[in-house]
From TrEMBL:
Coiled coil: none annotated. This is histidine kinase. Keywords: ATP-binding, Kinase, Membrane, Nucleotide-binding, Phosphoprotein, Transferase, Transmembrane, Transmembrane helix, Two-component regulatory system. PANTHER family: NITRATE/NITRITE SENSOR PROTEIN NARX-RELATED, NITRATE_NITRITE SENSOR PROTEIN NARQ. It is an enzyme of class 2 (transferase). It comes from the Bacteria. CDD domains: HATPase_UhpB-NarQ-NarX-like (cd16917). Its EC number is 2.7.13.3. InterPro entries: HATPase_C_sf (IPR036890), HATPase_dom (IPR003594), Sensor_HK_TwoCompSys (IPR050482), Sig_transdc_His_kin_sub3_dim/P (IPR011712). The chain crosses the membrane at residues 35-52, 64-82, 94-113, 125-142, 154-173, 185-204, 216-234. Pfam families: HATPase_c (PF02518), HisKA_3 (PF07730).
Amino acid sequence: MRGVSVGVVVAAVCTGVGALPLLQGFADPRMPTGALYGAGWPAFGIAAAVLFDRGQQPRIGRALAGLALVPTAMVAIALPRAGGSVWSRVEDLWAVADVVVVLTTLVTLAATMGFARGRVPRRRLFWLLVWSAVVLGTFLVADEALVPRGAAVVLTLGMWSLAGVVARLTVAAELRPVDEPLRDALAVALTVATGATVGVAIRLAGIRAGIPSPDLAAVVAAVLATALAWPTAARWRRFWLAHRYGTGTLTPADVASITADLRPLQDPRVLLDKAAEMVAACAGRPGVRLVLGGDSPDVPPFWVERPLLVAGERVGTLLVGSENPEGPEPRQARTIAQLLPTLALVCRAVGLAVEAEQARQGLARERDAERARILRDLHDGLGPVLAGMSMRVQAELRRSPSPVLASLAPQLAEARADLRRIVSGLTPSALHDADLVSALQRLVATFDGNGHQVVLHVTAPEPLPPEVTVAVYRCVAEGVTNALRHGGASRVTVQVMANAAGHVTVNVRDDGIGGPIAPGVGLTSLRQRAEQMGGSLAVEPCDAGGALLHVELPTKEPA
């Protein structure tokens, strides 16, 4: 605080000393032109006091305080000279050295501000040079075209504006890209040009038509045209800023349009892409990615990493692309920072969904292992026993036929067929050496005959995951078996349809007795398995008779 206070005092002293020639000039009935030349430099002392008070850039503050002494220095140089009054000598000195003084002031400011690495320092120096060129060019034109008193007024206004620009550039924590103010100026210029063009056209038309007061009509028309053209220019400016920086907020309509194509059975990680689209629409950054997990991913060049935390735990990372190595613009960075908590919750929810899906897959694998164990027990235990009993019955039937053996032989054959179907349903061996379509064709062929007809239609554009393939095979086997055995059907239609959107649908329709339907162990087990995989299974009577087994399963699994 002591350093800041001393700086403010020094700036105030320099401002007062530099303003002495101006104050002395006010004592003259007619402000001397020599005193008027120095009326602009006290503004640098005021700017220095502002910087010292805020504790920012003391080097620039000292330079501004020194520039405030320029009028007094010019008077001190002119005093020892002979001839004429003091103010005339000061005016002659300014007339000779004014361009040199202005150039020295501009070079001092540019050198003091300096060139530093970073987006803001570069923009600060750029705007200082631009405004310095404007001030210098305006003064050179005024110095040639106007009398000394007019040039002194232009110089005063230029120095006050330059001091204000320097203070604003130094205090500003962030500066817009250099093309934005140029676009603003272009919008204003086009608006004014539109009004001026309309005014000139109205004036020429009024003169040609001989209407009274054409100048007044032209002025009114120019003002109205300018007022009407400005909303269009402002709309263009807002559209351009929205294209660069995004909307800044997400409306319910934005969320609805982005999430309109989400489906409950899709991969939950699709939500990450949708959330990235939301960030891109909100912040105006086309390159946005959400990465799941607690590890820091590889960040491409010119991309910025933002960790996503929930209760101190890193659940994901937001990657934002940028044309600038320093990252997005501050306006965009603030918008992204506001969205980080929401994105963290999205990553957490998606992570939990993926973990749940992986747990379901693990449970399905455990169930498959248990079914494989049961398969071995049936194949190695009950299967040989039934085969041996069947052979002994057949041998005894050939040796001494009897009604009991004659009825027992087909029952054993049917039991062996049922056992084969059960074993095939547990772990379909038909899938080991064939694709799903071939395996289903073989399965359906075992049901044909004896007055039964089974029709198969399969549409599978891409190979299905192993768990889904087994589930489809089991559903078809169970559905056809139930239709023929319990439904008394003579015709069964099987439809298996898979699409690239991530779903497979199984429909088993029969012409049997229909309801009531009491799901047994097989259907209950299949329904539980479908739900564990994230799908569904339903059996219901059809209006035209018979029953329908409808199964939907997801085909795309989280990695």
